[in-house]
Design brief:
mainly alpha
């Protein structure tokens, strides 16, 4: 019985490792493949020409990285500005409609993302926020509030 259990555990761990590391390995191979034609299991030639194209000055990779880091920082700050007071009020306070407010923060996750984002896009078109840093930060903040408010609420509720 223990041999069967050990074998089953090993097989399940191997499948889990394959499910996690298989796609990552595939992407790493694709990132250095120069030529790779159908019947071949691995690329015929390797190189870094695609990486060179990305990081040349016309590729704007560093500008994109700067924009991404800037958006991430402002998204975290905006989430914290909302989540800390909301978590404190919901976790430590005795709000009359506490459950309602907690469920209100779950609303963006209750519907398919495409429907939520289409409605946000329609509103942002009217406000002129499409394609701006503020618009992107707001969309990311709305999606992140679900997690940040619930985590802050749990953290404040756990403290005496």
């Amino acid at each position: 019985m223990t041999i069967l259990r050990t074998t089953l555990t090993a097989v399940l761990l191997a499948l889990l490792a394959f499910a996690i590391f298989g796609p990552i390995t595939n992407m790493l191979i694709w990132s250095v493949a120069e030529t790779w034609y159908f019947p071949a299991k691995l690329p015929q030639s390797y190189g870094f020409s695609f990486w060179e194209r990305v990081f040349r000055p016309q590729g704007n990779a560093m500008e994109s990285l700067y924009s991404s880091v800037l958006i991430a920082l402002f998204t975290v700050l905006a989430s914290l500005v909302v989540a800390i007071p909301a978590g404190l009020a919901l976790g430590r306070g005795s709000l009359p409609w506490r459950t309602f407010f907690l469920l209100l923060f779950l609303l963006p996750q209750a519907f398919p993302s495409i429907a939520v984002h289409m409605n946000i896009a329609r509103i942002f078109y009217g406000l002129g926020l499409n394609g701006t840093y503020v618009g992107v930060v707001l969309v990311h903040t709305i999606q992140g509030l679900v997690f940040s408010v619930w985590i802050a609420t749990a953290a404040f509720a756990a403290v005496d």
